[in-house]
Amino acid sequence: MDTFTDYYAVLGVDPNSPASEIKTAFKKLALQYHPDVYKGEDAEERMRVLLLAYQTLNDPAERKAYDARRSEHILGVSSSRGNVYHDDLRTRTRSNSAEVTPRARRDRQRHYSFPDLTGDDPVRLDLGDITYDLTSGEAQALRERGILRGVATEAQGNYPRHCHRCHHQWTIASLRGRGLVDVCPACKASDWGEYLLLRCVHCRAVFESEQIRDEVGAYTYGNGALCPPYELFPLCPYCGASGWCPAEDVRVEHLRAQAARRAALFRLVSFGLVALLVIVAAFLLLNVMR
């Protein structure tokens, strides 16, 4: 039987909502049903559907094709199908010839690399419009921790610039006499040279997080620090597995241990206060009975 999921209903938005409203709705729901927050048995399935809904409606071409299919299922309007979809992301196919990585099971709108990080040699990562040259130490750190943060070399010298926020590229000559500036000419980001590379321990896909400062300070992300990868990618965007980043596993376990200690301290203080109240009440009762 052909099943159908209304992604607008999943995200709680109107079918005519702009992309910005869809993105905001997804972020709120993603935080609500994050595996570290939502403890239901269907946590991964909820996140899977949320991610699929967002990725479909956030891409103009996919959204147009989905709207046609939605009209056929919900509104009873006959339409031709340019793309073929299945609710199981592992069997989903698309006719979009502009796919970045055709084998990606989830987020196909980014580049992935599968380098051999087991040796002691420097490693080159080709991630589409930018190439990263890692030292052997950086490659080892990426393999062991799943995270590598740094500042691109072009931000430190007279090189062609590449913004890691909006992917705008420029050179000093293109500034036309305005002199060296410390912000991206396109998005005005002052931290345009900072990058965050992530690697999944399951499928070994390496990819760039171009949104490492996306909405910092909103939705309790923090006070200006880099967003933890799990808050942006609770599931690996390539293979869809959870628990994909060793460094994040350590951070999550640390946070859980802190929460457990706070809960134990709260219970101890609460028990002490109750015991104190009982003692005081008993003392007063004895005085009254004398």
Which helices and strands, and how do they pair?
Layout: H1 7-11, H2 19-32, H3 43-58, H4 60-75, E1 123-126, E2 131-134, H5 136-145, E3 147-151, E4 161-162, E5 169-170, E6 194-199, E7 206-208, H6 229-232, H7 246-289
Antiparallel strand pairs: 1-2, 3-6, 4-5, 6-7
Kindly describe this structure.
This protein has 290 residues and is mainly alpha-helical. The protein contains 7 helices and 7 strands, in the order ααααββαβββββαα. Strands 3-6-7 form a 3-stranded antiparallel sheet, with helices on one face. Strands 1-2 form a two-stranded antiparallel ribbon. Strands 4-5 form a two-stranded antiparallel sheet. The longest helix is centred in the last third of the chain and has 44 residues. It is extended.
Tertiary shape: extended
Q: Total domains, how many?
A: 3
Strand order of the largest sheet: 3-6-7
In round numbers, the mean pLDDT is 75
Please report which band the strand proportion falls in: under 5%, 5-15%, 15-25%, 25-35%, 35-45% or over 45%. Answer: 5-15%
Report the biggest beta sheet as strand number plus sense, adding barrel if it closes. Answer: 3 strands, antiparallel
